[in-house]
Write a sequence for this structure.
């Protein structure tokens, strides 16, 4: 047993707790298939969204924790329910009329509304894979359509047909009175229209492997349940997939607690063992409402990644997965800086601390070296005080502050500069509101400007910060937060801001003095914004 494994056995981070429970459930042995299977699901009726990414990221974290605890091989399937019939056209997609005409058809049989792929399902699957590949996830993509048509599920579908009544006893009590009359686990694919039918099943023929259903035109049709001629309603489908693939671990949202129980019961009826689960809380939008793919009221992955690196998104997923969190643009800066703080701390931590550090989980145990000690918040404010959307302008100040850093040898920092400029342009700049100093603040600001003039250009950020504190104390600010808030509002046009010592050191002492002189002279700092 390695030292790392000993430490992992006592690590408190939630992925380790999940991994230890899974290892216990498996009794420390590999399943008959020879590996432990982790699975995540994706419903491609809408474009991939952050919740989809979050499920893969969190599952990957548990998988890696498991690998630190055991030598049992593992796999991760990213499974797409792309054979589902489209029941509602998402508001966010183009070609609404065409999609409406194809309602009811499997997602992989509907033309791509974007015109770039074989079908709507293929398009959305590609969007998912592109992002997962870009982040470097280790997974195997699985398509429901391909699995059904290739016969991968045939044996389990035939078992379900044989145990049809037992499965119905699980589902029927959960349905309304009207739905009970027409419900069947099997959804036949109409050979005439290609639609996935919510049709009443009139007969089941386990020996023949077929069902008889009433078509939309009233005709009685007999069809095999195998080979992609039918698919399952989603709860039996989930259970069938767990059984057929031998899924050992799958997490899901709080809204699916009852569904997990029902699918677990069906899985047992089919002769399988339900996977270990993990229930995570749902994301909320800016108004505290549940995020919906069809409504498009949350952030997309593309939107987050326009303003921040993917590691910050992974941190958002790592933190407090059982707590409901607002997922909106204003959470991005803090998550970026929190990620940078964890990354910067990692090298000096002992092994136990490293396994508790989110950076270990985000980077599967191998975090990169930090590239510079500049925070996202400071870069935002540098963009703001320079009134620029030009990366080279910010790099002028960065290179003077840290001559060892360039866009070429610090590509992560260079990306961070671009992210900060984008965020400044779209969210900070429109909200900037400068104010004039009060008489007391004017006196303190004059004092601070004078103190800075007396400093050498290479004075450290710590020494500058100390002087900012001293000026605030000298001028009677009982709560120094009020002093810093005044500096932010007068000089930066916002109520919150960076550590002033670090900002002044980066922006430059002469430049900072010039900024203060403009404010003291009553110049409109917003005029050049």
């Amino acid at each position: 047993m390695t030292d790392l494994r000993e430490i992992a056995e006592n690590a408190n981070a939630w992925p380790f707790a999940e991994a230890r429970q899974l290892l216990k459930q498996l009794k420390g042995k590999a399943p008959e298939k020879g590996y432990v299977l982790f699975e995540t699901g994706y419903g491609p009726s809408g474009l991939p969204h952050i919740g989809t990414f979050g499920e893969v990221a969190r599952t990957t974290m548990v998988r890696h924790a498991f690998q630190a605890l055991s030598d049992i091989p593992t796999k991760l399937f990213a499974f797409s329910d792309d054979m589902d019939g489209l029941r509602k056209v998402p508001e966010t997609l183009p070609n609404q009329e065409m999609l409406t005409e194809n309602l009811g058809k499997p997602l992989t049989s509907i033309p791509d509304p974007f015109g770039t792929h074989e079908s709507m399902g293929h398009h959305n699957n590609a969007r998912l894979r592109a992002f997962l590949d870009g982040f470097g996830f280790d997974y195997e993509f699985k398509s429901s359509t391909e699995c059904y048509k290739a016969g991968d599920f045939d044996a389990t579908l035939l078992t379900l047909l044989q145990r049809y009544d037992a499965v119905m006893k699980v589902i029927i009590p959960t349905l309304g009175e009207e739905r009970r009359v027409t419900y069947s686990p099997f959804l036949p694919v109409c050979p005439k229209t290609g639609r996935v039918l919510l049709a009443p099943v009139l007969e089941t023929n386990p020996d023949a492997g077929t069902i008889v259903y009433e078509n939309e035109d009233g005709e009685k049709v007999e069809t095999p349940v195998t080979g992609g001629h039918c698919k399952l309603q989603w709860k039996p489908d989930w259970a069938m997939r767990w059984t057929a693939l031998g899924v050992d671990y799958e997490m899901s949202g709080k809204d699916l607690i009852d569904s997990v129980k029902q699918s677990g019961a069906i899985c047992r009826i089919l002769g399988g063992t339900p996977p270990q689960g993990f229930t995570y809380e749902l994301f909320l939008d800016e108004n505290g409402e549940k995020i919906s793919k069809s409504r498009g009221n949350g952030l997309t992955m593309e939107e987050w990644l326009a303003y921040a690196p993917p590691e910050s998104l992974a941190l958002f997923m790592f933190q407090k997965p059982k707590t409901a969190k607002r997922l909106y643009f204003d959470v991005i800066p803090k998550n970026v800086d929190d990620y940078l703080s964890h990354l910067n701390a990692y090298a000096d931590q002992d092994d136990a601390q490293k396994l508790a550090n989110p950076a270990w989980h985000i980077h599967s145990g191998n975090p990169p070296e930090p590239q510079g000690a500049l925070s996202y918040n400071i870069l935002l404010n540098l963009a703001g005080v320079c009134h620029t959307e030009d990366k080279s302008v910010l790099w002028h100040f960065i290179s003077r502050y840290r001559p060892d850093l360039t866009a070429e040898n610090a590509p992560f920092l260079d990306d961070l500069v671009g992210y900060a400029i984008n965020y400044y342009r779209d969210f900070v700049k429109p909200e900037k509101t400068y104010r004039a100093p009060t008489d007391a603040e004017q006196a303190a600001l004059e004092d601070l400007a004078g103190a800075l003039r007396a400093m050498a250009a290479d004075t450290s950020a710590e020494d500058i910060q100390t002087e900012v504190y001293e000026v605030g104390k000298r001028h009677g600010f009982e709560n120094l937060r009020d002093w810093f808030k005044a500096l932010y509002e007068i000089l930066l046009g916002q109520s919150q801001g960076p550590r002033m010592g670090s900002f002044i050191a980066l922006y430059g002492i002469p430049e900072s003095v010039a900024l203060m002189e403009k404010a003291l002279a009553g110049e409109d700092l917003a005029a050049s914004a």
Summary: The mean pLDDT is 93. The CA atoms of residues 489 and 495 lie 5 Å apart.
